[in-house]
Design a protein that fits this description.
Ferritin, mainly alpha, 6 helices
Length: 187
């Protein structure tokens, strides 16, 4: 399975998975979906790197206490997640890859924004990244090919669910960006 196909599966699964999460139900990924450990490591690492770097940017650009608090938590939690992933990868003689082009582009879109436009775009991208993270972790936990990575995916899925729930709560404390701005995504 190519990385592009895996991204598509993750995004489709994310939409279904988050819809299920928001109603407290869990949706299992399709039984015939599986992917290799290196693909899981690449995607999980890319998301962790995006969360860390966008969180640091939020601490520089946001004045909203809710956004800043959420960013601090994302830096802390995704640094820990990345460290765990790095340990498993190192045990197999592999290094973690950097951020992929899709997440690098998301980060680049945040760069010029400030104030409420930044806050709104950051929170929207957090939602997108966490939906993707939930989908890939849940899918790999059910059908991954590497037992250590499957265990890691199982252990980290509840934290991603927690982040999604916290994001929904935090969202109510982040004012929408002014309508005149076309730079910020809509909710």
């Amino acid at each position: 399975m190519t990385l592009s196909q895996l991204h598509t599966i993750a995004l489709v699964g994310a939409a279904v998975g988050v819809a299920a999460c928001s109603s407290s139900a869990r949706t299992a990924p399709p039984a015939d979906v599986s992917f290799a450990g290196p693909q899981f490591v690449q995607l999980a690492s890319a998301i962790d790197q995006f969360e860390i770097k966008s969180g640091r940017l939020a601490l520089e650009r946001s004045q909203n206490p809710t956004v800043r608090s959420y960013a601090e938590q994302m830096i802390r939690d995704h640094t820990a997640s990345s460290s765990e992933l790095k340990s498993v990868a190192a045990a197999e003689g592999k290094a973690l890859p950097g951020m992929d082009p899709a997440h690098a582009q998301m980060l680049q879109q945040l760069q010029p924004l400030r104030g409420p436009q930044f806050d709104s775009a950051y929170m929207q991208m957090q939602l997108q990244a966490h939906r993707e993270a939930f989908a890939i972790r849940q899918t790999y936990a059910k059908a991954g090919d590497d037992p250590q990575l499957r265990q890691l995916a199982m252990q980290s899925t509840p934290l991603v669910e927690k982040h999604l729930a916290e994001l929904q709560t935090a969202w109510t404390n982040v004012p929408a960006a002014p309508a005149a701005s076309s730079a910020a995504p809509t909710r």
